[in-house]
User: Fold adenine deaminase from Tenuibacillus multivorans.
Amino acid sequence: MNEHLYRWRNRQLREHVAVVDGHLAPTKILKQATYLNVFLKKWMTANIWIYEDRIVYVGEELPEKMSPKTEVINCKGRYLVPGYIEPHSHPFQLYNPHSLAEYALKTGTSTLVNDNLMWLLLLDDKKAFSLLDELQNMPVSLFWWARFSSQSELREEVEFLDDEDVLKWLNHEAVIQGGELTNWPDILREDERGLYWMQETKRLRKVVEGHFPGASKKTLTKMKLLGADGDHESISGEELYRRLELGYYAAIRQSSIRPDLRKVLQDLNELELNVWDYVLYTTDGSTPSFYDKGIINECIQIAIEEGVPLEDAYSMATINPAKYFSLDNRLGSIAPGRVAHINFLHSKEDPTPASVLAKGEWIVKDHEYVGQPYEMDWEKFQLTKMEIDWELDPDELRFSMPVGMEMVNDVIMKPYPIRSEADKNVLARSEDEAYVMLIDRDGEWRVSTYLKGFTKRLGGLVSSYSNTGDIILVGKSKRDMKLAFDRMKEIGGGIVIAHAGEVIFELPLPIRGVMTNIPMEELIEKERELKKLLQDFGYSHSDPVYTLLFLSSTHLPYIRITPVGIMDVIKKEILFPAIMR
Assistant:
């Protein structure tokens, strides 16, 4: 079977029919299963036949032909629902697409639609597409979207995303969406390239995902006219209702930097929303520890607690996103012809499954993980350790900008006038001010200023994890920043913290300095350690990993440190250009 197209060969299709006709034995029989029929929004009882990776029959009958290899599962006392779908994943928040997908399956999220940004930054198209094919071998279903912008101000944006590359991605079988439209103001005004890519997406009968935080009804209307289909940026029930009113599919976000789901549902209850067919959930690329108890199962739990009807709470995680992506003939339901992604629940009110089937294989059985781990050979795709063949001269740690960046929250920065004495070796502990530098991973340029609100006394942090794949240095001590940089270089990329002349934390990121290859369970504990350490040093916000990721992201206000320099995002002006090394 081709995972991306779900095209079974004629021989396989004949076998599926032969099972129904009694000429072949099914692989599994789920006997007397109480399951959610998402089409009728009704709990029903049936016998479910599975042949290899596909559901071939749902009904009252039992098969005429059995074999010793047929597994019969008595489902009495269990409630079956379709595998959950995460429609908007950024699978590179320290974890990688493989480790995230493997972890997601354990709590019933068996389909993820993923951002392709890191593959654009790290791989050529041929290698990237080979990797997408390799990931088909996992029991999870992985799909992708095609970026229309880098979310930053790259030095070679046109080369990074040209027509040929975008169209190659849009035409790939694994790509089911264009966007997300973080560059929508430009498209609305004069970006003909972006508008062309939107129209090509529509021509291919794929959806265009928006990114319209705080958008007015008029703006949403105009973007609908240009081709947008969905949006996940509602921060209130009123905003989400506005999107539904205009015919958008609207995902409610429950993420580490925007845990909005409960409040939005409460708002929608006041607005008396009673039609949920165009509402989805997303965790929007949360950082590892946010996923401690699972992914989409946690969203369903909140919806149930907030009074969403049970059948709708599950439909928002299954058939609704499947319909949005036109995958409902393959995913999102327990019905003939669908891929055998099925979750077995103890009760209707508890969406964390006791057992999980994915592509007809057991992943979890009675709360015990029984799946066969799928090992990824990252070196096969040239996703090896970061190699830095240049030195950072201590004399380059210069910080004499008149304007710095002050943290409003985890990810939003506003400009502020710098009053500290210029360019000392160590900044005073009395101020929550630190040096910050973005330096090219190839060592060609650097940008520096001050960052207020990140730490009160930390010596130095260096991260090769960033939105552009370049290197971030933050700290109060130039000596500690240099020490952390040298250690990060030595381990081949990662996040390293040094203080008082000693390395006190390191998280290696051996997949090109951006992603780790350790299991999610280990990464969750490691990220908690990082967060606790930074909070001890004066970080007062909630998500330092996202702070590092979004320091250079120009889809957020107001000022950013980018590869071309310090940028005023609103005016799209470079306040202070990057310095060539």
